[in-house]
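Discussion board: Methods & Data

I've been asked by a reviewer to show the raw model output for two of the constructs in my manuscript, not just the figures. I'm not sure how much to include, so I'm pasting the format here to get opinions. Each protein appears as its amino acid sequence followed by a line of discrete structure tokens. Is this the kind of thing reviewers expect to see in a supplement, or should I convert it first? Here is construct A:
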Amino acid sequence: MLDYKKSNKTGAKIQNLAQALEDIQVYDAIERSVQIKHNIKETQARLRHMVRIMALKKQILINIAMISDFSYAWKAIDGFIPVIQREIGQKPETVLRLKTVFSKLASIMNVPLKRIIEYNSEDTRAVAKYYSGELVKFVKRTLSIIPTNIFEKLREISVILTKNVKEMETKMLKETLKDFACFEDRYTLAKRTHEVSMLTEGMLVLDKTLMGVIEIDPKEILVDGIRKELGRTLAAMLHEGFIFSKRHLGEVETLESKF
């Protein structure tokens, strides 16, 4: 029976177990079995890891808590938004790792709330809600780059499909097949399509996450972001496209012709 509260005795027992596993390897039945030898090696490695854990002193745990303390991040997190957004733009698969970042970020509230909870203050919930709201704002600002990136890649896809890649004919000569292949354009098309799917998949994988006392749904953030980006894109198209001029004397372009 191993009892972590009695670290010295438990450590000695674990070392004896590791030595016993070392000693039994001389038997022929074990020596001939690769699977058994592999299992013994794994067990010994885990036992050595347990010994190291048993040797941890209280001061080491205090030091780890101080080093991993994230409360200072209120001053630093805004500077990381462009860094994270740049990484998402260059490597869309980065979105899949954001859930871990946001979960860790929630520990930023521990220090501001600790003393209030110890004091049994009635303001605990109000303070928690305020800090949670700040975290949600950070998450929304960080994820706002995803709809922007999606529309940028869709614009590139649209150009490739409408201008670069020709539509295949039902019948064509073997000599002209190369003209329709457009290998580089089709590679870029596949790459951009994959990047769009990675961005959307990353948002959907995040699932509902608690930021303090407020639950956020990344799917809603994605939908809102796409709506804003769609509105921005339409506004730019209308601003650039609906410019009327007199083509001939007395003849003005109509709204219908612009559409």
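Construct B, same format:
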Amino acid sequence: MHIAAELERPLEFGTNRRYAPRRTLTLASVLQDSGASAVIHDLSVTGLSLETSDPLAVGEKLLVDLPLRGATCATVVWRDGSLFGCEFEESVSPAAISAALLRASPGDRDVSSDADGVSEQDLQPAMSVAQKMWLIIALSLASWALVLGILSRLLT
């Protein structure tokens, strides 16, 4: 059986900014212009989606308070009820994304892959603290055994 398909290649990052990896989170923020509270639901270097009761219109510019970055200018590009998709005027640094993830509620952090394919779960320690301690002790003893073996050969 043959299936005809046409694969669409993602455009380069510079021509379509929606291809930036997004991280889901729940982070309380404030819209600087109106002082209205907002909840950021996903964040990337190029934009975010947020939920607010403030009546925003597509094309409206707003300032969103982000950790490490402060007031950040964004333009509303879509709206679905009280959920808004916004594009940043200037890209946000990966450090600002990390700071936002650290400030977000722990249970709501995304463990999906970053742009380099490494997920937060991949960065978790593979060994417990006790296992690491035993490994350190074993390597220390092996190192001392090696040093004593070399010294005994040099002295004889």
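Answer (T.O., handling editor elsewhere):
This is acceptable in a supplement if you add a one-line summary per construct. For B, something like: Residues 1-16, 108-123 have pLDDT under 50 and may be disordered.
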